[in-house]
Specification:
The protein has 390 residues and is α/β, with parallel strands linked by helices. It is 45% helix and 14% strand. The protein contains 14 helices and 13 strands. The protein binds pyridoxal-5'-phosphate.
């Protein structure tokens, strides 16, 4: 008998479990709408042109892969900081950015840092939220609760959300989806963001913005504008950026954590602690993806190209939303009012199971489908399958 004898078998990750079932399915017309990945009109993972050109630049500058500093590639951190807080902004002086392993790694560094400061702080995530929010903050040692966010048949439950934030204890960490809410697709309006920021300030909460989809709602600048709502007030602020979707660099694990302090001196102390977190978690981050993202962020031509390619991706998603709504009738008109990669269809778990088992269309039991995986070649099948299980 060893310490491993009683290791319990952990449940399968719900999303990756669906992918496994999809891979095992022999139906040649199977469709995977389970994973949060943007696919192009041909159903392929795109290589963005801005990234292809960045690869040429990075190849020209190829150097041995020495260790990066603990907080990551300096040019990358500087580029992300400007993306988050605005080039030339006075906020840059009191903000710090560290490279992270994707958006998840950025959230994890932030969670670790916050736990060191106050392990007893409550953490609130939206109901529902990306599954990993709860798991990640729980695993870090926090008690995780929820604020109301979605009401079936209605969409965003903004009064409920606001009431729950206004009720939260001082010091509560509030995880907020900056745009393209995962899993529902329902976002706040700018006026609603102002009300949330008011509540955060009044109640002295700690906002943690998850920006996993910057650029997929209205564009980089418009989607990033939510940061200013919080940064303009004397509240602490954490922002987790991911380039997984926006640069289609999923496996390179490119993300960053940005933290805004009260002044430059406080920011320096925050950075020193973030470095301790990183050092003890994985020592220092990988080189390649950050070099690519840094090149795109720094080169005005590549940056403009990136903006244009993001516009193409979001336009394609909008076209697919419209096409799905047209095929499914007025009951599904709500799909066009959601944004980002996902749609909460309102279908129940047994209907989602029937979609998988009888039609080889794979979405999550929660009713979430990834509309960014729809294309002209599969949309009729998907719409017919949804009609059949309704
Ligand atoms: C809301 C949200 N946050 C964070 C992430 C993590 O992104 P990454 O793949 O960069 O770790 C995702 C990815 O699906 C997400 O949907």
């Amino acid at each position: 008998m060893t310490v491993f004898a009683d290791v319990p078998l952990a449940p399968r990750d719900p999303i990756l479990g669906i992918t496994e079932a999809f891979v095992a399915d022999q139906n040649p017309d199977k469709v995977n709408l389970g994973v949060g990945v943007y696919l192009d009109a041909q159903g392929k993972l795109p290589v963005l042109e801005c990234v292809r050109r960045a690869k040429e630049q990075v190849a020209l500058a190829a150097k041995p892969a020495a260790y990066l500093p603990i907080n990551g590639l300096a040019a990358y951190d500087a580029g992300v900081k400007e993306l988050v807080f605005g080039a030339g902004s006075p906020l840059l002086e009191r903000a710090v950015t560290v490279q992270g392993l994707g958006g998840t790694g950025a959230l994890r560094i932030g969670a670790e840092f916050l736990r060191q400061l106050n392990a007893a702080a409550p953490v609130l995530i939206s109901d529902p939220s990306w599954e990993n929010h709860r798991a990640l903050f729980t695993r870090t040692g926090f008690a995780v609760g929820t604020y109301r966010y979605y009401e079936p048949g209605v969409g965003l439950d903004f009064p409920g959300m606001l009431a729950d934030l206004q009720d939260a204890a001082a010091g509560t960490v509030v995880v907020l989806h900056a745009c393209c809410h995962n899993p529902t697709g329902y976002d706040l309006t700018p006026a609603q963001w102002t009300q949330v920021a008011d509540a955060v300030q009044e109640r002295q909460l700690v906002p943690f913005l998850d920006m996993a989809y910057q650029g997929f709602r209205d564009g980089l600048a418009a989607d990033g504008a939510v940061v200013a709502e919080f940064a303009g007030r004397s509240v602490p602020l954490l922002v987790a950026t991911s380039f997984s979707k926006s640069l289609s660099l999923y496996g390179e694990r490119v993300g960053a954590l940005s933290v805004l302090g009260q002044d430059a001196e406080e920011a320096a102390r925050i950075l020193s602690q973030l470095k301790v977190c990183v050092r003890t978690l994985y020592s220092n981050p990988p080189t390649y993806g950050a070099a690519l993202a840094a090149a795109v962020l720094a080169d005005p031509e590549l940056r403009a190209l990136w903006d244009a390619e993001l516009a193409q991706m979001r336009d394609r998603i909008k076209v697919m939303r419209k096409a799905l709504a047209e095929r499914l009738g007025p009951d599904f008109a709500f799909v066009t009012g959601q944004s980002g990669l996902f749609s909460y269809t309102g279908l129940a778990a047994d209907q989602m199971r029937a979609l998988r088992e009888q039609h080889s269309v794979y979405g999550l039991d929660s009713g979430r489908i990834c509309v960014a995986a729809l294309n002209e070649g599969n949309i009729d099948r998907v719409a017919q399958a949804i009609q059949a299980v309704r």
